[in-house]
Amino acid sequence: MIGGFLSKQQYIWIDGKFIPLEKANVPILTHSLQYGSGIFEGIRAYASNKGTAVFRLKDHVERFLRSAKIYSMNLGYSAEELGDAVTALVRKNGLKSCYIRPYAFYNDDHIGLDVSGKKISVAIAAVDFGSYFGGKDKGINCIVSSWRRINSQILPVQAKASGNYLNSIIASYEAKLRGADEAILLDIRGYIAEGPGENIFLVRDNKLITPSESSDILLGITRDSIMKLAESRGIEVEERLVHREELYTADELFFCGTAAELTPITHVDSRAVNGGKVGPITKMFSKAYSDASTGYDNVFSSSWLTFV
After folding, report:
1. Is the overall model pTM greater than 0.85, yes or no?
2. What is the DSSP letter of 2?
3. Which residues are catalytic?
């Protein structure tokens, strides 16, 4: 495997055409490379019990189009066309499971901030991708970052825009410098927001607690999946403002996201969570999410999976 791709010939879908990966190039002065003016999605496909299936494809494509709408980017493709392009690419690349990255960008190499009338290209990549945290199913160590989560007075947090993730990168880098695996960001008021690329859940008294939309979080599709799985099992989910110290007194903690899937958090700011062990509720949701994404959930798999 080279650079995350399988060694066989791989293709990128761009502006309606499949081209070999090595020919998928843009000029060095491309606007979205200079200014972070692109938008993107992260999607996973899994080897399910009935073949390769993309998890919640429709929801991801709809969020991609919402991001475009927020930034007034006319992508020129319908949700159906983009969904078909995703499944066709996964099929063409022969991937049983993978991470899929739709990306829309200003394909223009001018100096300056004006994007009016500039060409917008849409590209989709599908790459072989394993565990985001290197298989740390025993839990990761987090710190609360000194950097605060951006808010909608600064940038639209509900758009999955490239530039937003500089906030995530600097927080994650700080965590690594401090010997941790990942960061947890507070919002501008000091309440818990999210991880650099993950939503967060606390478990207390067999109930799930997660920061609400008012904490400037990205409304994650994996987050929504966990909430629906909880509802189907009669487990209460409380969306609200979450104080920092609640991280230290939670029975269990976990991240969730397309890349991170469900990742247990066993230490925060050098404090052990559940004695430093993965708790039973976290384990239950990890299995439930895995079952739903691989076809073994009789309630959700049929509506959440799009077979390639």
Report:
1. yes
2. B
3. 160
Give the Cβ contact number of residue 112 at 10 Å.
10
Query: What is the C-alpha to C-alpha distance for residues 139 and 250, in angstroms, rounded to an integer?
Result: 15
| Residue type, position 243, single letter | H
Cα separation, 158 vs 164, in Å, equals 10
Note the residue count of the chain.
Answer: 308
What are the residues whose beta carbons fall under 8 Å from the beta carbon of 74, sequence distance 6 or more?
Answer: 68, 120
The answer to whether the beta carbons of residues 50 and 307 sit under 8 Å apart is yes
Identify the CA nearest to 155 among candidates 31, 256, 67: 67
Model confidence pLDDT, tens digit, residues 132-159: 997 667 899 999 999 999 999 999 999 9
For residues 150 and 215, give the distance between their C-alpha atoms in angstroms, rounded to a whole number.
Answer: 10
The one-letter amino acid code at 38 reads G
Residue 250 region by backbone torsions, left for phi larger than 0, else alpha for psi between -120 and 50, else beta: beta
Express each pLDDT in 6-37 by its tens digit: 458 899 999 999 999 999 999 999 999 999 99
Q: Are 105 and 38 in contact (CB under 8 A)?
A: yes
The domains located in the chain, with CATH, are 11-127 (3.30.470.10), 140-293 (3.20.10.10)
